[in-house]
């Protein structure tokens, strides 16, 4: 997608990376399950929240997986840490079963400004045609 848009990529990386076991939401003792039950644990520290040349971008796409109907909490940390004023923000997510829901709206509420557009949900392994349609809509 980034290549199709001629876009740069910034990866949101937790300081304490999530393992496959951490992400097993079907295990009540997994990291994400414990964090889900205790919201105080959802303030996930990131390796960096600083995007090079952030002020030069006027459009930002934010991609994330859906966790319990919302954006993965590391994304919240990123959004809260940056100033989106003067930017158009387009959220998109991946999920095997959940829709986009209010995840984009919730991120917009946590953000420091920006014009947040309606987002897009992709299934777990989106087709090239799905991605092309999304990119074509952005480029209009």
Compact overview of the structure:
This protein is an alpha/beta fold and 140 residues long.
Can you offer a commentary on this structure?
Helices cover 28% and strands 16% of the residues. It is an alpha/beta fold. Strand 1 and strand 2 (70-71) form a beta hairpin. It has helices spanning 2-5, 31-37, 73-81, 103-110, 128-138; strands at 59-67, 70-71, 88-94, 115-116, 120-122. The protein starts with a helix and ends with a helix. Strands 1, 2, 3, 4 and 5 form a five-stranded mixed beta sheet that branches.
**Based on CA inertia axes, which overall geometry fits?**
globular
In angstroms, what is the radius of gyration?
15 Å
Helix/strand-derived category reads alpha/beta
The largest pleated sheet is described as: 5 strands, mixed
Query: Average pLDDT across residues?
Result: 89
Query: How large is the count of helical segments?
Result: 5
Count of individual beta strands: 5
Q: Beta-sheet strand percentage?
A: 15-25%
Distance, first to last CA:
15 Å
What pattern of helices and strands is seen along the backbone? HHEEHEHEEH
- The helix fraction, in percent, is 25-40%
pLDDT below 50 for ≥5 consecutive residues: which ranges? Answer: none
Short descriptors:
alpha/beta; five-stranded mixed beta sheet; single chain
């Amino acid at each position: 997608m980034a290549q199709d848009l001629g876009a740069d990529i910034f990866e949101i990386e937790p300081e304490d990376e999530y393992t496959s076991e951490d992400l097993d939401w079907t295990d009540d003792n997994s990291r994400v399950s414990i964090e889900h039950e205790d919201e105080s644990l959802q303030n996930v520290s990131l390796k960096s929240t600083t995007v090079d040349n952030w002020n030069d971008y006027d459009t930002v796409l934010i991609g994330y997986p859906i966790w319990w109907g919302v954006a993965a909490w590391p994304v919240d940390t990123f959004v809260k840490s940056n100033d989106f004023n003067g930017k158009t923000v387009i959220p998109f997510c991946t999920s095997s079963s959940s829709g986009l829901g209010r995840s984009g709206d919730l991120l917009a509420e946590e953000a420091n400004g920006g014009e947040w557009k309606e987002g897009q949900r992709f299934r777990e392994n989106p087709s090239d045609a799905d991605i092309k349609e999304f990119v074509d809509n952005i480029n209009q």
